[in-house]
Automatic annotation (TrEMBL):
Chain ranges of the Glycogen debranching enzyme bacterial and archaeal type N-terminal domain: 34-253
Superkingdom assignment: Bacteria
Domain (Glycogen debranching enzyme C-terminal) ranges: 311-666
PANTHER family: GLYCOGEN DEBRANCHING ENZYME (PTHR10569:SF2)
The organism of origin for this protein: Deinococcus knuensis
Protein name, per record: Glycogen debranching protein
Lineage summary: Bacteria, Thermotogati, Deinococcota, Deinococci, Deinococcales
Length: 699
């Protein structure tokens, strides 16, 4: 797949499939086109495809306690080209809204991403400069590779803008940083000179065959404007310290230069990048292998699968305490969240052939259970976790069954079944936040004043915007699915299921949600229905044990299509509702008030697609995904955004969101396999529920 073509960027030869997208010079200038690189430890390098910093999270971020306690150390390279007595800056910094310092944007010939590795090309005075960026795994380093083509000798001056702070904040005043120059290596430390053992920056230059002049650092304040922080009502200016560090003289014909900027922590200190070009080749090959494995595993060999498989890799990281694989819910500001991890597990790991990571990820959260609840989120400061979730542990049960169904790993099923049963026991007898089975009907009650428990979980200064206390419909679907998972796993292991009666009773009671020809979004403890039109009913009906009829599924499909469906996802509340908020933006209180009151979310769209496929509506399912598929290339490149404004459909929240990306991959594979089946003579499906789970069909 490709967009606007450019004459400059040329794909290096690497094995395996290639996912490619190119941007012409005008498109490449857009600072809203963001690229993400990650190191597998929670650290990342973030910026626009052209290199413009747009957030306080832009630049190089490293984790002190993987994957949390993250610090920003470096904002942007400073790059200046000298040729035949002329000079041009290759970087571009926004210093006020729409005002840029540096000629980086106007010199662009285009930009491209190859397996989501970004590069840009610039042209000045007949000299072409191609810049590629990557992060070697576990290194905490952003590596900038410059390829210069020139008919005459040129000089490339390189340096950078440095900071040292918590990634969520900015330097309002000139930061106190200490530069130590040592030829081809420069270190930049924080106010204590690094004596406190905190992260510091090591910048290293590589330029084989070139003449390198090490410059004496002369740090100067540089003010930077962050447009995306301004749109979010956050502090939008920062004072950085900038300095030129080296001048590299290249002969006629040009040459190659590498700038390695590493955030040094205990986890990254032993990962020096000795040969940047070899490291790039290894990373390119690794990404191609990820894409090929996903195509083979899913049975869908197209470029979208390849792209999303490489994107999926960004979210899978190593956790230090408790040790194991976990999922960063979204970049740049989320840490790892339990609910998000379990929903995203299928797309991130099972469809991509990363079964070992799936097992490790499940192990991380099974080991973290407390009174039958999985952590809603681990705190980004490394100081613990929150357990305010009713659905996270139930999604864990769903993910566990999917893993065993796909891999046939009965050994893991046997070792995990006691934890699953303990989880169910806690729900039956009652656990935190009023979560317990209602003795009257066997359905799951949840709710506590001032606490948000479902995925619609915003709380603003004590105000729970969408409390949904009582019996939310998707929670009942998940409760049934968790009970069903125990039964099926027990059968597979030759053991006696222990919750058959609880499952039967809850299934008998579920029809109480069908009132007046439609499903309620929730039932209060006294049975009063909440008739809000939200996407949660689709989530419930797409799960494997939810009792329904074809007519009821058709009614839900019509309701979603007429009131909730948009080109990029589903509204969280019908626009016909008086509480609907169509504008997602502004300060946090404004964003949070709209978050689940009409804002569009992509990830629940997959449940709607499953309902369409259950009714044989393959073409309509493909049409429902069309807008989101195109969105992959227009915000967080290769990924899917967290949310979209209800009215304008402008992307918002994190531009790189785990469950959004993973669920688009799952939906695309489901539809692609259904299209392949439809191309063969076969009777149309008639079942009302979702398609069965198998290695070929991951629902």
């Amino acid at each position: 797949m490709s967009g606007s073509s450019t004459s400059g960027p040329a794909r290096p030869a690497t094995p395996g499939p290639v996912s490619a997208y190119t941007y012409g010079p005008l498109a490449a200038r857009d600072p809203d086109l963001e690229v993400l690189l990650t190191d597998g430890l929670g650290g990342f390098a973030l910026g626009s495809v052209a290199g413009v910093p747009t957030r306080c999270y832009s630049g190089l971020v490293v984790s002190e306690q993987p994957p949390v306690r993250r610090r920003t150390l470096f904002v942007s390279p400073l790059e200046t080209l000298h040729v035949a007595g002329r000079e041009a800056t290759l970087h571009a910094l926004e210093i006020a809204p729409g005002v840029f310092e540096g000629r980086g944007l106007e010199l662009l010939t285009g930009a491209a991403v190859w397996d989501l590795l970004p590069e840009r090309e610039q042209l000045f005075a007949g000299v072409r400069v191609r810049r590629r960026v990557f992060m070697p795994p576990a290194s905490g380093a952003a590596v900038f590779l410059y390829d210069v083509q020139s008919r005459e000798p040129v000089t490339l001056r390189l340096g950078g803008l440095f900071v040292n702070r918590d990634m969520h904040h900015v330097h309002a005043r000139v930061p106190e940083l200490h530069f130590s120059a040592g030829g081809r290596e420069v270190t930049v430390r924080g106010a204590d000179g690094g004596t406190g053992g905190g992260p510091f920056t090591r910048a290293t230059l590589h330029a084989p065959g070139a003449v390198i002049d090490a410059l004496t650092p002369q740090p100067h304040p540089q003010r930077v404007y962050y447009r995306h922080d301004a749109a979010r009502g956050e502090p939008d200016h920062e004072v950085t310290l900038g300095s030129d560090l080296w001048e590299v003289s290249l002969p006629a014909g040009g040459g190659r230069v590498a700038l390695v900027v590493q955030g040094v922590t205990p986890a990254t200190a032993g990962h020096a990048v000795a040969d940047p070009w070899a490291a790039y080749a290894q990373e390119a090959a690794r990404r191609s292998e990820l894409a090929l494995r996903a195509q083979d595993t899913s049975g869908v060999r197209d470029e979208l699968v390849a792209t999303l498989a490489v994107a999926a890799d960004a979210y899978l990281v190593r956790r230090e305490r408790p040790a194991g694989v976990t999922v960063i819910a979204g970049y740049p500001w989320f840490a790892d969240w339990g609910r998000d991890s379990m929903i995203a597990l299928t797309g991130l790991t099972l469809l991509t052939g990363r079964h070992a990571e799936a097992r490790d990820l499940l192990g991380t959260f099974l080991a973290s259970l407390r009174r039958g609840l999985t952590p809603n989120n681990f705190h980004d400061d490394g100081g613990g976790a929150g357990f305010n979730t009713v659905d996270g542990a139930l999604w864990l049960a769903v993910a566990l069954e999917r893993y065993v169904s796909v891999t046939g790993d009965l050994e893991f099923a046997r070792s995990s079944l006691p934890a699953l049963r303990e989880l169910l026991d806690w729900h039956l007898r009652g656990t935190d936040h009023g979560i317990r089975v209602d003795d009257r009907d066997g359905l799951l009650l949840a709710g506590e004043a001032g606490v948000q428990l479902t995925w619609m979980d915003v709380k603003i200064e004590g105000w729970v915007v969408t409390p949904r206390h009582g019996k939310p419909i998707e929670v009942q679907g998940l409760w049934l699915a968790a009970l069903g998972a125990e039964a099926r796993l027990s059968d597979a292991l030759g053991e006696r299921p222990q919750y058959v009666g609880a499952l039967a009773r809850a299934r008998e009671s579920f029809p109480a949600f069908w009132q007046g020809g439609a499903y309620a979004d929730a039932l209060a403890a006294d049975g009063t229905p909440d008739r809000s039109v939200r996407p949660n009913v689709a989530l419930a009906l797409a799960l494997p044990d939810t009792p329904t009829t074809p007519a009821q599924v058709d009614r839900v499909i019509r309701e979603v299509e007429s009131q909730l469906l948009t080109p990029v996802g589903v509204h969280t509340l019908s626009p016909l509702d008086a509480r609907y908020r169509g504008n997602y933006g502004g300060a946090q209180v404004q964003r949070d008030a709209a978050y689940h009151q009409g804002t569009v979310w992509p990830w629940p769209l997959t449940a709607f697609v499953e309902l369409l496929l259950s009714r044989g509506e393959v073409r309509r399912a493909r049409a429902a995904l069309a807008g989101l598929t195109g969105h992959v290339w227009e915000a967080g490149i290769g990924h899917v955004s967290e949310v979209f404004a209800g009215d304008s459909l402008r992307p918002g929240g994190c531009p790189f969101q785990a469950w959004s990306t993973a669920e688009l991959l799952r939906a695309h594979v489901l539809v692609s396999l259904a299209e392949a089946r439809a191309a063969r003579p076969a009777p149309a499906p008639t079942q009302a529920g979702p398609l069965p789970l198998s290695t070929q069909n991951l629902t």
